[in-house]
Every structure is written in structure tokens, then in C-alpha cells.
Design goal:
- This protein is α+β, with helices and mostly antiparallel strands.
- The longest helix is centred in the middle third of the chain and has 19 residues.
Length: 648
């Protein structure tokens, strides 16, 4: 068969197959044109579900007489001129196919008047012939497009239309979505001469909330959390419903990118992951969220109906949306911290969001900026089980012993080789398995021959080190041990601090590994602490904390120690500076004080059997020559002489 160029009429018919799916598609395209023209009032009149008539009037900038016939031509648009414009599309429409495609399958009349034109003119086109007839008309400033007898010349397409009620339901949904995107525009929807919807322009916060309630229902607003975050060119705002408002269908999932309504998988995934396990698997969240960013950072020309976009930094956008949503839920007290599946090539892991409860004295002058967005670290699927959230002593719902052990191993692991994170996590898996095997081993010769004899079943850990057995855990932070056949009470907290000190001294000499934050964190400080920070900036940098002074009462954290990558940056920094400031007031700061500020964040709030085993393994590996010395320094003998006499 020979190759030929398609006639214009046929090309428009083919294009109409993509643009004009049903009456709702026509309304979407025409209303978006009105919005691009700067309209503040748009009136939509429908007859018989749109199959008989669709009439849309606006008060936009209008189309001049000389351009009316051109407006109905294929690939004719005023919205882009050059290739450079295509790389930064700021309008809702840009392909120039809508009017030509619609007029090829209907009887279309376009009446328009720009403000600087004395009178209005009207252009008419019917079906395949595409012959445009132009004549004068009466019309105020703006444009009216009247589409009648949709698919009158394509019976096969007309047969696929549903009932008038069904088609109008789709139209109503399109108007709802657009009304949410353009809160400052008035929309009037009329069906069969009956007023169905009227959304008045909103300018205040209360009016915007009322508009959202009109579309999504009053209960949505009552259960919604307001979201607002600005970072450089990114602005994310809107309403996010609490998990208690979970839906059985995704009828209240409204997301927008630069005012364009979306059904984008990346956006929906990030929002859904913010809820984590708070929603049952068969339910959906409810939200109305708007993302605004530089137009050159997003490609909107990747979907025929423009329902999806492609971000130039997709992972960054995913993390940003996820972080804002999770923090909003966290601030409302409905979420703590959890692990999250992400793309097929791994998972995004949230840094702990739990607030650190400090004394009122410590918190008196240190405030955390609510706009903080925590960074995310990327790890492979194989290491997912090794990560667990941080916790504090005041919490009642603590992680399991296995989670605590995994978290503790991660914190004590060498963070300098961050690029080898996957292999390190696998090593931790193997180490944990070996540890459990060792912990369950019972020696045949583990009975002591001295003053105290104990059955194997009473030992928590047998022979964890040479001549050492852990008999009992006391108040979660102390252990009753048998050291060289002597019964002693060991402070696990002090021993742990000494082991960390030995491990971190070499890092302190060269400076801790610093990890750049995905988004900087703004912290408010009083004047005294800000002066303390500035005077000791070189020491903070050695810890891996890089800050910029913003003004007289706030700083911006740019980098944070890699050792604390699973900690909340804001609360951790507040705790570090409070600790150091208080120590500095008492005495001049020493190296041990700087290390202590970091160590206090690395230690768990309580010790389990598995964490104790890990602690002794670290002790054996890092300080084999002074094991007995450290054990003796951090323990005290337990004398049972009096108790034994009482039993005689």
C-alpha cells in the first residue's frame, strides 16, 4: 500500500478519539481553555447529559475576529510559540487540538469578544467539512462555545455513550475537580435548565474551606488536617483527612500539579505511603492536595489526557510529598514512624519523627520550626527488616526486642561507608542470626564452683565473654552478672557509653561523617545558645553538624551526622545543643562532653537480651585488652552474706 498524508478532516477525527472520549472530556478541554484565558466566572449549561448540548460561557480575554477561524484549526494555539516554551508549560492546554477535534464530531459555534474589540464575532463549524463561517454577533467581553449534537456524524462513537444520568455524573466530577483547583473562580453548572452546582469564588481561608466542603462534604473538612509547606520552588498545600475518615473507594482523592488535576501514580503512592499501616489494605485515604513547582521541572506532555506527568526529579518529589504528609499526620498524633515500600528497586525509609520529651527548662528557649521536612535515606529491600524506629523512655508502645536489637546494631555500625549500606545491612542480618544462635547455646560447664551456683535456665546469656555470664536483667538498664565467679551488678548504660567512646574517639580526631539533608531544617534558638553555637562552630562541624545562621534567632541545618541518620534532625539537634550548653555552663567543654552529646542519642532507652548480646560483641571487638577493666569499672559487687545468714 502506498503512503499518503491523511486529509485534515480524517486527522481531526483520529485526534478526536484521544481528546473527546465523552461529553465530560469536551467540558474539561473547554473549561481549561476558559481558565487559560483568565476567566473568573465560568457557566456550564448541559442538556441531556451533554449529548445534545454543551454550552460554556466565560468572562476571559476572548479571541479576536482575525483569529476565530484559526482557533478551529488543528495544532493552533496561543499558549506556546517555541520549543523553549514546550519545556516550561504554564498553561492547562497547549496542543491546539481541542477545538479542532471537538468541531470535527459536533456542530460547534464559537462566539467571542476581546475587551479592546468593538463588537463580538461568531465562528461556526459542522463536522467533517470543517468549513468555518464567520459573522457578527452580540456578546459581552469573553467567550461562549456552544457544542451541539455530539458525535452526530460518528454513529459508532455515539453508541458508546451511557445514559444521560451516567454521563452527567462524569461531567459533575470533572467540574468538582476543576472547582477545587481554581478556588478563586466562580463555577455555575446547569443541567436541563436546572441549577445543579454553584461554586462561588473563594478568597479567604474560611471561604476556601467552605468550597472544599461543598465538593467533598462537611465531614471531610471536619476530619481534615491542613497541610502547608514551602521549600525553594516547591510548595505543597491542601487538606489531608485523618485515617479515621478512610474511604472504601477512591472518590475523594484529589491531587493537582501546578493547577492541573492529576491521577499520577507517583503522587498517589507517596500520599498512601504516608499513612503506612494506619489504613486497612482495602481502603483509601481522602485528600485535596496541591503541588506547585517550577514548570521546567515537570513534563506534562506524557499522557494523552494529561492525567499524569513526569517529574525531572521524581524521587525528590516523592520524598517531599511523603515527608510533608507524614509529618502532618504525626503532628496530629495519628502516626509515629514506620517503614515504607516505594518503587520496585527498593524502599524509602523514614527517619524517626517521634518528638523528644525534654524538661521544661531545656525546652524553654529551643523551638522547632513546624515547616521542617525530614530527609529520607534509601536502602535496599534486603535490608528493610534491619531498620526500626527510634524510641524514648516515656513511650508505652515500644518496638519488639528484635526491632530494638536491629536498631541498636544499625546505630553502632560504622557509618563512614554509606555507599555500602546494602552490604552492611546484610552483614547485620548474619550477625543477628549468629548472635541468636550463640545466645541460645548452653555450656555443659557453665555451673560456677564458687559462692553462688545457678541453674542454666536462670541465665539470660551464658558465657557471653570469657568468665562472664548474664544472670538477670534488672530494671531494663542493669544486669546481674557472674564475672570471674563473682556476683556483680553491671550498669549497661555506663558500659555502653564507654564502648561508644572507644569506638568514636578515632572518628572525633578526623571529624564525623556528615550527611547532607534532603531539605534543610530551620531551628529557632535564643540569643545565648546562638552565640554558643557560633563560638563553637568548628566543634559542631567536627561532629558532622553544618549550619547556616539565618538571622538573630534561627539557624538552618544543612548537614547532620551520618551516625544519626535514623533520628529526627530537629529534636536531635535540640537535645545536642541543650546538653552541650548545660555542660558548658558548669565547666569548660572537653572532648568527652562532645562525644557524650552524640552517644546519648545513640543509646537505647532500655536493654533487651539481644541488645545486651550485641553490646558485649562490640566490647569484645573494639576493646579486647581492657574488657575486664571496663566491666569492673562499670559494676559493683553484690554481697549476699547477710541474706545467706538469714536463711541459715
Amino acid at each position: 500500500m502506498s503512503i499518503e498524508i491523511l486529509p485534515a478532516q480524517l486527522a481531526n477525527q483520529i485526534a478526536a478519539g484521544e481528546v473527546v472520549e465523552r461529553p465530560a472530556s469536551v467540558i474539561k478541554e473547554l473549561v481549561e481553555n476558559s481558565l487559560d484565558a483568565g476567566a473568573t466566572t465560568i457557566k456550564i449549561q448541559i442538556e441531556k447529559g451533554g449529548s445534545k448540548r454543551i454550552k460554556i460561557s466565560d468572562n476571559g480575554s476572548g479571541i479576536s475576529k482575525d483569529e476565530l477561524s484559526l482557533a478551529l484549526s488543528r495544532h493552533a494555539t496561543s499558549k506556546i510559540k517555541t520549543l523553549n516554551d514546550l519545556e516550561g508549560i504554564s498553561s492547562l492546554g497547549f496542543r491546539g487540538e481541542a477545538l479542532a477535534s471537538i468541531s470535527s464530531v459536533s456542530r460547534l459555534t464559537l462566539t467571542s469578544k476581546p475587551e479592546n474589540q468593538e463588537s463580538a464575532w461568531q465562528a461556526s463549524a459542522e463536522g467533517r467539512d470543517m468549513a468555518v463561517d464567520i459573522k457578527p454577533a452580540a456578546h459581552p467581553t469573553g467567550t461562549t462555545i456552544d457544542v451541539q449534537d455530539l458525535f452526530f456524524n460518528t454513529p459508532a462513537r455515539r453508541k458508546f455513550l451511557r445514559t444521560d444520568k451516567t454521563e452527567f455524573t462524569h461531567i459533575e466530577e470533572v467540574i468538582k475537580r476543576i472547582a477545587l483547583a481554581c478556588l478563586d473562580v466562580t463555577f455555575v453548572l446547569i443541567h436541563n435548565d436546572k441549577l445543579v452546582r454553584q461554586y462561588r469564588a473563594a478568597s479567604t481561608k474560611a471561604q476556601c474551606a467552605k468550597r472544599v466542603a461543598q465538593v467533598c462534604g462537611q465531614k471531610f473538612i471536619e476530619h481534615a488536617i491542613e497541610v502547608e509547606c514551602q521549600h525553594d520552588d516547591l510548595h505543597f498545600s491542601g487538606w489531608l483527612a485523618k485515617p479515621s475518615f478512610a474511604r472504601n473507594q477512591n472518590d475523594l482523592c484529589y491531587s493537582y500539579v501546578n493547577g492541573r488535576m492529576m491521577r499520577d501514580k507517583l503522587i498517589n503512592h507517596a500520599i498512601r505511603q504516608a499513612y503506612s499501616d494506619l489504613l486497612p489494605a482495602d481502603t483509601y485515604p481522602a485528600f485535596v492536595l496541591f503541588l506547585t513547582l517550577n514548570h521546567r521541572d515537570v513534563d506534562v506532555n506524557v499522557h494523552p489526557a494529561k492525567h499524569e506527568v513526569r517529574f525531572h526529579q521524581g524521587r525528590y518529589i516523592h520524598d517531599f510529598i511523603f515527608s510533608v504528609c507524614q509529618k502532618a499526620l504525626h503532628d496530629e498524633g495519628v502516626v509515629q514512624t514506620s517503614l515504607h515500600d516505594a518503587h520496585d528497586d527498593g524502599v524509602y525509609e523514614s527517619v524517626s519523627q517521634q518528638p523528644t520529651h525534654q524538661s521544661s527548662q531545656n525546652n524553654q528557649h529551643t523551638q522547632v520550626d513546624k515547616s521542617y521536612i525530614k530527609p529520607l535515606s534509601y536502602v535496599g529491600e534486603s535490608s528493610r527488616a534491619q531498620y526500626a524506629p527510634s524510641y524514648s523512655a516515656h513511650q508505652t508502645d515500644r518496638p519488639s526486642a528484635k526491632q530494638q536489637n536491629a536498631y541498636y546494631q544499625l546505630m553502632s555500625n560504622d557509618a563512614e561507608h554509606s555507599n555500602d549500606e546494602l552490604s552492611r545491612s546484610n552483614t547485620l542480618n548474619d550477625s543477628a542470626n549468629n548472635t541468636r544462635a550463640e545466645g541460645s547455646y548452653v555450656s555443659e560447664n557453665s555451673h560456677p564452683e564458687g559462692a553462688l551456683a545457678t541453674n542454666h535456665s536462670t541465665n539470660i546469656l551464658d558465657n557471653v565473654l570469657e568468665n562472664l555470664s548474664v544472670l538477670h536483667l534488672v530494671q531494663e538498664n542493669y544486669a546481674l552478672v557472674l564475672l570471674n565467679k563473682e556476683l556483680r551488678l553491671l550498669s549497661l548504660v555506663k558500659l555502653d557509653a564507654d564502648v561508644f567512646t572507644c569506638e568514636l574517639q578515632s572518628k572525633w580526631e578526623v571529624g564525623f561523617v556528615s550527611q547532607p539533608l534532603l531539605l534543610p531544617v530551620k531551628i529557632e534558638l535564643d540569643k545565648i545558645k546562638l552565640q554558643f553555637l557560633e563560638s563553637n562552630q568548628s566543634y559542631f562541624e567536627r561532629l558532622g553538624i553544618i549550619v547556616n545562621v539565618v538571622n538573630n534567632n534561627s539557624v538552618q541545618i544543612r548537614q547532620f551526622p551520618a551516625l544519626l541518620r535514623n533520628k529526627d534532625v530537629a529534636s536531635s539537634f535540640s537535645q545536642i545543643i541543650d546538653t552541650l550548653f548545660n555542660l558548658n555552663e558548669a565547666n569548660e567543654l572537653k572532648e568527652a562532653d562532645w562525644l557524650l552529646a552524640i552517644i546519648s542519642l545513640l543509646q537505647p532507652s532500655s536493654y533487651t537480651t539481644e541488645i545486651i548480646q550485641t553490646l558485649f560483641n562490640r566490647l569484645k571487638n573494639s576493646q579486647p585488652n581492657v574488657i575486664d577493666q571496663l566491666l569492673l569499672l562499670n559494676s559493683t559487687p553484690v554481697d549476699l552474706t547477710y541474706e545467706l545468714k538469714q536463711l541459715m
